[in-house]
Amino acid sequence: MAGRRGTLLGAALVLLSTVAFGGPSAQAATTSSAAAPLWFDGAAAAEVSVNGTRFTDGYGREVVLRGFNVSGETKLEENGGLPFASVADARASATALRSLTGGNAVRFLLSWAHAEPEPGKVDTAYLNAATEQMKAFLDAGLRVFPDFHQDLFSRHLFHKDSWYTGDGAPRWAVQAGGYPVESCGICFLWGQNITQNQAVKSATRDFWHNRVLNVGTPTGTVSVPVQDAFLDTAQKTMTHLARSLTAEQFAGVVGFNPYNEPFAGEYTQGQNSRTWERDLLWPFYEKFRARMDAAGWRDKPLYAEPNMFWNANLDLAKQPGGFLDAGTFGPRYVFNTHFYDQKAISNIFMWGKAADGQYATDFGTVRDRSSALSTAAIVSEFGHPMNGLTADKAPTVVKAMYQALDSRLPGASWWTSAARSGPVLSSTQWQWDIYSGRHREAMNGNPDKMLTEGDAWNDEDLSAVALDASGKAVLRQDARLIDRLYPGAVAGRTLAFGYEDRSRDGSSVLSWNRIPGSMPNTARLVGSGRYGVLVWRSEGATAAPTQLHLPNGFTASSTTVVSDLGTVTGPPEYTAQGRTADHPIASAAEPGATDARRLLLSAPAGAESAGTLHYALVADGTAAPTAELRAAAQRELAAWAAGAGFPVS
Predict the structure, then answer these.
(1) In the predicted model, what is the mean pLDDT of the chain?
(2) What is the pLDDT of residues 2-56, one digit of tens each?
(3) 585-589 β-sheet, strand order
(4) Of 187, 310, 400, 614, whose CB has the highest number of CB atoms within 10 Å?
(5) 641 or 187: whose pLDDT is higher?
(6) Is residue 402 classed exposed, middle or buried when 0-12, 13-18 and 19+ CB atoms within 10 A define those classes?
């Protein structure tokens, strides 16, 4: 992109893809102990591999990862590049995330600057502290994929009075680079630095070209290829994690994200975004893949991000990419991308609120690239500012994003076209920062610029959580929007999923997925409450049940399920004889959680065969339906599922 206008538009994509934290101690959300694991919990359930275009667990179930980035605090200095001030805070944050949102995964941020403060010397104290904080999330039943995070290459590029800051590379890499004094010129958004600040552009270009830096040390000058130094540190970090975690904890580490939001910095003569991906970015991932193998991560996928502007939703910012020349990925790589609505953030190109189906095309493109690359996909950052000129759009923007993650269809056409719903996308929202609004960050080391508000990073404010006056973690976004019904594990292949969360925009109820008039009993049963529908086809490979997270409010006594497996209001607690469930529809505590619940759907023992079509409607019980009404709704749903055109195999 050339010129100020193009830079501004392209930079909006990055505006939200970074954030930060630090601060006072957090109290745990609850103190009750987690329930005993069931037979299908444990390491086999926690591990994730890539099977075609899906994630699957050790039982062969299709897995959807849902959660948050933990956290932008890593980008700050107040806690030494760690997500939390203490392990106790990490435990409290993990407990709150499980309890308040039912998330099952986190993208866990790490800092290269703190991992390698001197060339060739890894700070084991930093790695030990980061590992202990990571354990808090693994022990809470959350899967983890670490991310070596960077934005604008490094904070050390920025002088103490700068309007902006960055994170990522260590001080020595910047000092040896001899970069010009940073300046963004006339910039309104921090992300404009990516394409407008010459210091950032030059340092980023040098990384991708593996420039040899001459670094002064107490024992003399050493020559350091900058990308090789990063790869060495990454390998040492991964080796440390593999050795420091128990086998069960390491099973919950589901891959590694090598580099946040890659961009060329500057293209060389004759190069464009597509050839840069082919000639520099993809070879970097292949090198990182080899480091993963050497560190004991051979069975875990690499989460590969394309050029960060490949899916910009403004034409002036968009650049060709998405690994168009990479062939097929296979099971050792995941297609990992971000999405922010540049139009909504700009407050110029989208004046109103987001609407039903707003991002169906954008997220459909992610699904299409996943299919073309023959690998699973994840949207590892998405969200919208909680403060500022466009904050009023957040309730609708984030709802529309979750809707598009669940299905490639608008709500208005979901029931009539459900066979085109597509796979449910995995995702981690930006972000989860218990220190939101309580930071003490000296920006660029300047004590006269002490940042306390929001994320304390380039005026961002995106955290879905904060601490109240008593130190308790509370949601900053509508719980109906953030704590969602979703299929965490499916015993087969998902054919369609849709969820009507009834979240609010102020006092207005956002209801985008209306049950059609041709299904009056189903509509009566749901009423004005929340509901979701899952359709899946058995592959006959496992006795482990299909599992959906039950949001708060879907209580054990009032949740209604209408399925080909049966109907029930108030699913009983899951029990089994060996591996045979006593009830086809049951509920249980989420593994590792204190009070989060899940719905468990088990096909009859010995009766399940590959190709069996299943459906389940799950409603939050605004009214207690009679057995007759449930039976009538079951007949409607059975007819609908049979006639919807779902593929036979």
Answers:
(1) 93
(2) 332 333 333 333 333 333 323 334 443 333 345 678 999 999 999 999 999 999 9
(3) 49-51, 54-56, 62-63, 486-490, 546-550, 597-601, 585-589
(4) 400
(5) 641
(6) buried
* pLDDT(274) > 70: yes
Per-residue pLDDT, 211: 98
User: Strand 441-442 relative to strand 54-56: parallel, antiparallel, unpaired?
Assistant: unpaired
In the numeric block, the tokens 């040896």 are attached to: 176
Q: Which two tokens stand for residue 427?
A: 């995702």
Q: How far apart are CA 303 and CA 147, in angstroms?
A: 9
d(CA 576, CA 137): 28
- Average of per-residue pLDDT across 441-467: 97
The type of residue at 331 is: P
Q: How far apart are CA 624 and CA 634, in angstroms?
A: 16
Helices 226-244 & 198-208 angle (0-180, nearest 10) = 70
Per-residue confidence (pLDDT) for residue 22, from 0 to 100? 34
Q: Which two tokens stand for residue 38?
A: 């069931």
Cα–Cα distance measured from residue 425 to residue 541, given in angstroms and rounded to the nearest whole number: 22
Q: Are 630 and 569 a contacting pair, CB within 8 Å? A: yes
| Residue written as token pair 């296979």 | 330
Residue pLDDT, tens place only, 605-616: 766 677 899 999
Look at residue 12 in the predicted model and tell me its pLDDT.
Answer: 37
For tokens 């030494």, the residue is 80
| Backbone torsions φ then ψ of 231, nearest 5 degrees | -65, -40
Phi, psi of 373, rounded to the nearest 5 degrees: -90, -5
Nearest CA-CA partner of 37 in 589, 607, 642? 589
Return phi, psi of residue 232, to 5°: -60, -45
Closest CA to 254 of 386, 365, 106: 106
Measured between its terminal Cα atoms, the distance across the chain in Å is 45
Question: For residues 341 and 313, is the Cβ–Cβ distance under 8 A?
Answer: yes
Token code pair at residue 489: 């594990």
Query: For residue 156, what is the DSSP state?
Result: G
Question: Dihedral sign, CA of 563, 568, 572, 577?
Answer: negative
**What's the DSSP call for residue 94?**
H
Tokens representing 626 are 């009679």
Instruction: Count CB atoms within 10 A of the CB of residue 334.
Output: 30
pLDDT of residue 102: 96
Q: What is the mean pLDDT of residues 308-335?
A: 95
The token pair at 633 is 């709704």
Distance between CA atoms of residues 79 and 86, nearest Å: 9
